[in-house]
Every structure is written in C-alpha cells, then in structure tokens.
From TrEMBL:
SUPFAM superfamilies (UniProt xref): NAD(P)-binding Rossmann-fold domains (SSF51735), Succinyl-CoA synthetase domains (SSF52210)
GO cellular-component term (any): succinate-CoA ligase complex (ADP-forming)
Ranges of residues in domain CoA-binding: 4-100
Example of a GO biological process term: tricarboxylic acid cycle
Species lineage: Bacteria, Pseudomonadati, Pseudomonadota, Alphaproteobacteria, Hyphomicrobiales
InterPro entries the record matches: Cit_synth/succinyl-CoA_lig_AS (IPR017440), CoA-bd (IPR003781), CoA_lig_alpha (IPR005810), NAD(P)-bd_dom_sf (IPR036291), SUCC_ACL_C (IPR005811), Succinyl-CoA_synth-like (IPR016102)
Protein name from the UniProt record: Succinate--CoA ligase [ADP-forming] subunit alpha
Alphabetical list of Pfam families matching this protein: CoA_binding, Ligase_CoA
Organism: Hansschlegelia plantiphila
Segments passing through the bilayer: none
Gene Ontology MF terms: nucleotide binding; succinate-CoA ligase (ADP-forming) activity; succinate-CoA ligase (GDP-forming) activity
Family designation: Belongs to the succinate/malate CoA ligase alpha subunit family.
Length: 293
C-alpha cells in the first residue's frame, strides 16, 4: 500500500498549458496516473491534451472530483496557486516550482494551519508509488513495487537510491520528495510517521543534506518512538563550504547550523543506520531488513 497516493488519486494540474505543465502531464498520464483536469485562469472552457481546462481550482474539483493537484506555476504566483488549492480543500497538493520567495512560503504555511490539505514542496520532485501513480516530475524506469519507503530532500539522489533499492531486489512502496527549500510543506518527520503506519512499508530510507534542522527533528522523533522498522539514512554535504548555497535554497550552512556531521550524530544516537556513502544505501537497507527478520 502506498502513502499519500493510490489508484483512486484524481489529479488536476495547475499551470498545465505551459511547456513544463504539458510535458510532465503527458509523462504522468503515460505512467497511468489519472489526470482529470487542468487549471489556467482565463482559459476556462477550453481543452488541452484532451482534458478540460478550468479557470479555478474550485471549479475543477467540483466538475471532476479531483482530490490532488500538482502545481507548475512561476515562482511569483506559486504561493497564490497553493493557497487557492488549500482554500478549495484539495487533500494533496504537490508544488514543483523552485525559487518560491521565502516570505510567500510563510503565507502558505499560515494558510495550511487547520486546513484539510497536505502540501508537498515547493521545490519537490513529487510522489511516486511504483506501478500505481506518479504525481511529479521524477524519472521512471528503475522503480519497482516493494517494501522500502523513501523520504528525500534531493531529487537526483532519490533516483540513485531508487535504482539501488531495486537492484537489491527490494522495490519501493512510495518515494516522497519533501522539497529542497528551507520553508516547505510536509516534512521528513511527518512523512516518516506515514511510512511507519503503513503495513506494506517494511523499512525506510531518509535522504538528507546540509541546511535546516529537519534531520535532527526526525532523529528526535525516532528516539522517542523507537520504531521496529529498520531506518537507514544518507546525509550529504559533509565537505560543502560553509555559507555557500549548494544546489538549492535549503542546502546552506550558516554559523555551524545545519552541518552534516551534526545531523549524522543525531541520527546515529537515535539508532538509525547511516550509510557512509551514497553508493552504499541500497546495500545498507537490504542488510538492515535482513537483520530485522
């Protein structure tokens, strides 16, 4: 069983008529995802990719029963698109857009409080349940259905770890890109909670990096609940220069905060097995699962 998405996920695409929206909508549909509508203000009543286009999220939801949205909207207007989806009570929203202004994301986080929406991103590659649903922009081909849940801050490392897990004969239950920006929606801890509650997820891989404190927060949670499921982590950026952004907005250490060594230490204290190198993640989770049987 996947988390967040399943065979009944009905997707609307905010910003579907642009190049990125068009390209990735086609990719999702070819994977088998149920895309039911697009949203583009001013183009309501038209069709694109043989799908109806609506002016608003509320109209699209009412007409098609969409219960998830993916957002391909430029950074300057991405927050408004997210807030519109939250106000329309869309249960799951994935935002692919990068470089959404931090103050705009603060407004989005306020809108999420007390809402019925789970937001993944911004700056997320999305959510993938192999063979079930693709709600995102990730590459496919290496994924296989299986029992390993993957939570990641890095899109490229997710692809690498998926390939390793598949090569180890394990497969994935779901992969979730929580987003690389400093301020985003669903965090690593909340995602881990969902995986621990999923009976078909046997073990979890956490892919973290420098910047922020998410890894320490998830380590505190693991230390508190002491889950029976094996958890393996990879933390990258140990040799990154301080106070220089590496890759995206969230990968930044300032004044010693967010350093890789501190994250590794916190996770190891919580009982997590930390892979010493990116190329060892598949082998490490396979060994952890074998030892748990």
């Amino acid at each position: 069983m996947a988390i967040l998405i399943d065979h009944d996920t009905r997707i609307m695409v905010q910003g579907m008529t642009g190049w990125a929206g068009t390209h990735h909508t086609i990719q999702m549909m070819e994977y088998g995802a149920k895309v039911v509508a697009g949203v583009r203000p001013g183009k309501g009543g038209r069709s694109h990719l043989n799908l109806p286009i609506f002016d608003t999220v509320a109209e699209a939801k009412g007409a098609t029963g969409a219960n998830a949205s993916i957002i391909f909207v430029p950074p300057a207007t991405a927050a408004a698109a997210m807030i519109e989806a939250i106000e329309a009570e869309i249960p799951l929203v994935v935002t692919v857009t990068e470089r959404v202004p931090a103050l705009d994301m603060v407004r989005v986080r306020e809108a999420l409080k007390g809402s019925r929406t789970r937001l993944v991103g911004a700056n997320s590659q999305g959510v993938l349940a192999p063979g079930i649903c693709k709600l995102g922009v990730m590459a496919t081909g290496s994924e296989r259905p299986g029992g390993v849940g993957i939570v990641s801050r890095s899109a490229s490392l997710t692809s690498e770890v998926v390939a390793q897990v598949t090569a180890a004969g394990l497969g994935q239950s779901t992969t979730v890109g929580v987003g690389g920006d400093a301020i985003h929606g669903l965090g690593m801890r909340e995602c881990l909670e969902l995986f621990l509650a999923d009976p078909e997820t046997d073990g979890v891989v956490l892919i973290g990096e420098i910047g922020g404190s998410e890894e320490q927060e998830v380590a505190d949670y693991i230390a508190q609940v002491r889950p029976a499921k094996p958890i393996v982590a990879l933390i990258v950026g140990a040799h990154a220069p301080r106070e220089r952004r590496m890759g995206h907005a969230g990968a930044l250490t300032i004044g010693g905060s967010g350093e890789a060594a501190a994250k590794v230490a916190a996770l190891e204290r919580a009982g997590v097995t930390v892979a010493s190198s990116a190329h060892l993640v598949g082998r490490t989770i396979a060994e952890a699962l074998a030892g748990a049987r």
